[in-house]
Amino acid sequence: MSFLDTDSGKRLFNQYLKKVNGSSQRVYRSEIQQFFDFKNLKGISDITKEVLHAYQERLSWEHSPKTTKRKFSILNGFFKHLEASGAFRNPIITLKEFKTHTGVKDEDLLVCLDKFLATQNTPNIKKSYENLIKLFFAWINKDLCEITKQDILAYRDYLRENSYRDTTIWNRFISLNRFFKYIERENRKFRNPIVFKELTLIFPKKDKGYYTVLSVSEAQRLLNQPDRKTEIGRRDYAILALMLVYGLRANETAGLRHKHLEHDRVKGQQKVWIVDRKGRFQNRPKTAIILNGKALQAFDAWMDIVKGYGIKITGELPVFLPFIYDRVDHKLVIRRDRLPGALSVKSVENIVKRYIKKAKIERDGEVLSAHSLRHTAFTMLAHEGVPIQDIQKLAGHQDINTTMIYVHSAQSYDDHPGMRNPLNK
């Protein structure tokens, strides 16, 4: 319950809204409620400059400087009303201190940023990098050439003092470092001001459940959840099959396009090229998976549905398409209005999450995710004796030590390799 839900909060809030023109009351009510919900502020004493700056930063991710200014102007009016009622001091002395700067003082930075983002191959990564980099320049409010090591250390201290999580801090500096490295390669006069060793950042730990592996029976139970009598059920079954059999990531599944499919099949099998496996442009070699067995049957069943809609198959057409509810026929149909749009990575993750919940697969203290399916696939292959080099190639790992995780996961007390040594019999 926030301050606006208390008796005194309701009274003061309604008093203020009466001063606002009728047509604008709904907007003012919504804007003020959004602020109090942001940190679930229980009292007016919780309204501090720190909270306002955090709110401003959140808004800068989603809105233009003009929109952010309008939102703060509405808040300032309400705070002045609270101040007039007594027992409250408005933390906004001037709106200028909450002005959202672009942080960009010359066109060169914008050009560099656009070129850097063009080297990233997935929309989600582009958006993330753009937001994180712009947040830094909004904070520093300096030209690119003016940034020093001291500025970088000061930014780290600012993030720590404002209780940002270690993972958040790590991601911000990873984004900045990649951007600065790109500029350094393009411009010999520029020197990357980030020295990671001096930052002493804490490497983010994987969440519990990141390396969780499903048993064979759990994986089969998961595959049984989609209703394959429905079109969307066949799509979801194909998605789960690719992720559980071939270990595709959520972003790789969402990013599949028809241009990644080989036109001619060999021995009835379908080759699929997986490009830029972690979203890094021209940084990783292409790898291929060969669809066969039940996974190929599931894939073909979905392709038949797409063809049945009469959709023109082009190279850029996503393999997995979103559905929409048809109010006329009262059923889910493929979203033709979004073509050639695709399922988002978040949508794929939510599909997996929904069926895991439906299958009642649980782990104490662990969150099962789409990535759990990837680890399940490779652990099962290791358990079946597939050579580690083959698993490495299928996974698209550059370092075989990463693939060794699955070999360790596959070892158990029942079939440890040491038991097979003739000297141990």
Structure description:
The chain has 425 residues and is mainly alpha-helical. The chain folds into three domains: 3-98, Orthogonal Bundle (DNA polymerase, domain 1); 107-199, DNA polymerase, domain 1 (Orthogonal Bundle), CATH 1.10.150; 216-410, Orthogonal Bundle (hpI Integrase, Chain A). 52% of the residues lie in helices and 4% in strands. The protein contains 17 helices and four strands. The chain has helices at 7-17, 22-38, 49-62, 65-84, 107-118, 123-140, 149-161, 166-186, 196-199, 216-223, 231-246, 250-254, 293-308, 345-358, 370-383, 388-395, 400-410, and strands at 270-274, 287-291, 323-326, 331-334. α2 crosses α4. It is globular and about 80 Å long. The model is unreliable at 101-106 (pLDDT under 50).
Secondary structure category = mainly alpha
| Full CATH superfamily name of the largest domain | Intergrase catalytic core
Number of helices: 17
Helical fraction equals: 40-55%
InterPro entries: CB (IPR044068), DNA_brk_join_enz (IPR011010), Integrase-like_cat_sf (IPR013762), Integrase_catalytic (IPR002104), Integrase_recombinase_N (IPR010998), Integrase_SAM-like_N (IPR004107), Tyrosine_recombinase_XerCD (IPR050090)
Keywords: DNA integration, DNA recombination, DNA-binding
Pfam families: Phage_int_SAM_1 (PF02899), Phage_integrase (PF00589)
Family: Belongs to the 'phage' integrase family.
